[in-house]
Design goal:
Layout lengths: L2 H24 L4 H25 L2 H36 L6 H39 L6 H21 L5 H18 L34 H4 L27
Helix pairs in contact: 1-2, 1-6, 3-4, 4-5, 5-6
């Protein structure tokens, strides 16, 4: 994939994040749109994966990995915690032969375990947004400056929003966290403004380098080849082994 291909993938990522941001706002009135927004975020991740085939960037890989890990952990924690609460409610609503301490202990263990999983997922998601921020900081040359700056700020907003939203039992932090998350999504959505003209040009390869200089090693002179082949006096062929002609006795230079 070329640099233009990378720009296209990030632009598609920005488009899906923008729709996810809008649906996140609408989710206040209709909860189903919040679920759809989450699906769109995962679809957007696909374009980052495709872009990373070319970039092979560790921070971008870690972002996707930790985000998915955090999502799974939070879902698992929520299910476990709800199971613990349901077990406690059922125990008081429907009399059983089990001792009360067994049912309460089981419910407490499930609820505590669920909370641990949830906050482990929150921590993973916060690290994920931080990895994405590191990517934009270290590879800022790929994008225009104003888009890079907005993306970095958006990652910070999403990181903070993830933490505050996890404090759902506190109304004010939860509201602030929701606002931070929406704003962070919109900041990341500036990637959809990328143009193909923003693709970085490949570095020019130096083609006008002077040709390498080869030094020919002088070959040893063959004394036999430098000797005169014929006698200058009588024209007889010389063997090249002596200074005088074997036929007439003249000196051969």
């Amino acid at each position: 994939m070329s640099n233009i291909g990378v720009i296209k993938e990030f632009r598609e990522f920005g488009k899906y994040i923008q729709v996810a941001a809008i649906l996140t706002i609408v989710s206040l009135a209709a909860g189903i749109t919040g679920f759809i927004a989450l699906i769109l975020v995962f679809i957007a991740m696909k374009y980052l994966k495709r872009a990373n085939f070319t970039l092979n960037n560790s921070s971008l890989h870690e972002f996707r990995s930790k985000y998915f890990r955090g999502f799974v952990s939070r879902i698992a924690g929520t299910i476990i915690m709800i199971t613990g609460v349901a077990n406690l409610v059922i125990f008081f609503m429907i009399p059983t032969s089990y001792p009360i301490y067994i049912s309460i202990s089981l419910s407490v263990i499930l609820m505590v375990s669920g909370i641990v999983f949830i906050y482990a997922g929150v921590a993973a998601e916060m690290k994920a947004w931080n990895n994405l921020k590191i990517f934009f900081e270290n590879d800022s040359n790929i994008f225009p400056t104003y888009i890079t700056n907005e993306a970095i700020k958006g990652c910070d907003k999403l990181k903070t929003g993830t933490l505050l939203s996890s404090l759902g039992f506190l109304i004010v932090p939860a509201i602030i966290g929701f606002i931070f998350q929406v704003k962070g999504y919109f900041m990341l959505a500036t990637l959809n403004k990328l143009s193909l003209d923003d693709a970085p040009k490949p570095s020019e390869v130096e083609t006008d380098l002077p040709p390498p200089k080869f030094q020919l090693k002088p070959q040893p002179v063959n004394d036999f080849e430098t000797k005169t082949n014929f006698c200058p006096n009588c024209g007889a062929k010389s063997s090249g082994l002596g200074k005088f002609c074997a036929l007439c006795g003249s000196e051969i230079n």
